[in-house]
User: Fold these one by one.
Assistant:
Number 1:
Amino acid sequence: MRVSFSFGKGVVSVLLALLAVYVIWGSTYLAIRIALEGFPPFLMAGVRFVIAGAILAAFLRARGVPWPTRRQWGSATIVGGLLLLGGNGGVVFAEQSVASGLAALGVATVALWSAVFAGLWGHWPRRLEWVGLGLGFAGVALLNLGGNLRASPAGSAALAVATICWAFGSMWSRHLDLPHGLMASAAEMLAGGALLLAASAAVREHAPALHSARPAWALAYLIVFGSWVGFSAYVYLLRRVRPAVATSYAYVNPVIAILLGLGLGGERIAANEWAAMPVILAGVALVALSQGGDRNGRGDKAARAPALPEPEPVSERP
């Protein structure tokens, strides 16, 4: 008897996108900290997203992808402003005084805020998702109890604003008229990057001071992996899976960020922080398991929202 197993293309794409936002975005916290050694926060973030968005948009236009309409540009500006100016801008500002691991911990509350904001559109988490979200938040709290990570008041406030902006922008984006496929990422990065550069000019940030190549290499990593790969994967997930799954990266990113801080940043890991890691991963597992009865991992709202096409083959990406 021959037994064959098939794994749907959509399932594989979702799993790869989750892997990208789990691992790559976990590493960007350390990359941001290194980039801040030579760049001011808003200027660094603005340059990152304008360059990433411009090159991606040029590549897509060369392949015949339509340019966004005026309405789509308006939507991209709203989403880019919330996710990149408010969300990423708040994180890079906070990392001037907050350890990279603690910044990842603050962003972990995005999943809870997203669940609240999704309810504004009648899409509340299921019971098992609430359990997973609660378990993940408990793990994040355990990770921070008695640990070595400390935040300044300004950094803590910036992280709070960042998580609220990112969560609200993520949920609102599911109900806006945005370009299809990777052009949505390009438009949001261009619009959000322009707003970050405007913020840099408004607060009169200083010019870059590059005393070594480390900040430049870190910025290049953020453009290629954090923006092109990670952000595009996140936009894809927002249209394909339920909110709790799309934002479940927030529970894994602290683990990645702290491990990188331990290996490359000289940070120390306390016993309670090690104990928190399996709790966090268990919360992610519960959130993922709650999708078992929902075809393709979509909720009711996601099923009615326009879905993005499958991602470009890796060999054809810029």
Number 2:
Amino acid sequence: MIVAEEVSAVSAATEMARLASGALYAAPLAYFATRAQKDEFLRPVLAGDRVGALALTEPRAGSDAVSIKTRAERRSGNSVVTGEKRFITNGGVADFLFVFAVTDPTKPPRSGVSAIVVPRETNGVQIVKTYGLLGMHGANVVHLRFRNVKVPGENLIGGLHRGFPILLDELDRERPAVAAGMLGIARSAFESAVDYS
């Protein structure tokens, strides 16, 4: 919380990028990934050698798992991801995308959503649009499309159809950090506007 507030007070865009990679992407891996997954997908991000992004929001779904339309079908031990995610911070520069997708449409979201790490350079991952944000000109925020993106089964985090608890845990950790960042922005604006003379 302290880091989020202090970095935001200087640069909201920098904090947004840091939070997206070092917390929103990293926290679910820290709590739910296997040791091998952490070595491959988490360790290089925490070391600053790679960038991560959380891919949750969709054209018709925010943080509401019930409305997620992106699908991940199991084929020959792989996951094949199809769908769209938008307003993805770091999405255009990330090495890894932490994607929530429906893996069993016959079940309710609580038991039919999975979490998968998708390397952004995988065939079929497309950047549809880059957004310009008021007050956060340095932030990389994009709309992504997944077209039959084939990902190894080992990239499934927490087990098949076990994405919903991961999603809830991520949102619980994200909200206070985002609020702390907003506090830093507000404090900086207040301090720059106050005349102490």
Number 3:
Amino acid sequence: MKSGVDVILVGDSVGMVVLGYPDTTLVTMDEMVHHTRAVARGATRALILADMPYRSYETCEQAVANARRLIDAGAHAVKLEGGSRACRRSARSWRRGFPRWHTSA
């Protein structure tokens, strides 16, 4: 079925909506990879944007490694939160050769 959806967000809200957690801070990287992979299997046209879960991007190295896991699972882009701190980290990550990096303030 063609829905005309341009972007699908695989959000860390999966913690509350699907996994029964009280908030998003308990969602793990493994869970985000699992759900991103499931969405990627079903999505044929839309851009898949996956959330980086809480504490999955505390260092630049960790951010790049975890973002790559989401990309490998089928995400076309990743999203992280944190304003200017996240912007600085994403800029460093991009300079290290990770071209698909987006931030939200």
Number 4:
Amino acid sequence: MIATEGLTHLHLRVSDLAVSLSFYQSVFGMQEMFRDGGMVFLNTPGSKDLITLNPQGDGPIGVEGGIGHFGFRLKPEVELDDAIRAVEDNGGKLIRRGEHAPGVAYAYVADPDGYVIEL
């Protein structure tokens, strides 16, 4: 077994860097940490997670490619309806919502490129 501290980042190919950067900053409060070439690395404040937005390279954009979705855990004081509204107000869309178990609500939303995010 290799001892790790968890995942380092998700790398997303994006069609429009400015649109994707605005979406993740506005909706999830992510902060730009640094740039490497054309890629932008974003971090959720207070965590070690990173999302890399890459407007370059070959390959599909917004296609699952074996990854069905990734998720953000909402803070207890955040209402799911408010989170969905923030996604929609920033170019994303609601895919579906429901309950995993009684009282355990979720929503699947998509970012501007169609990447699926669970809230």
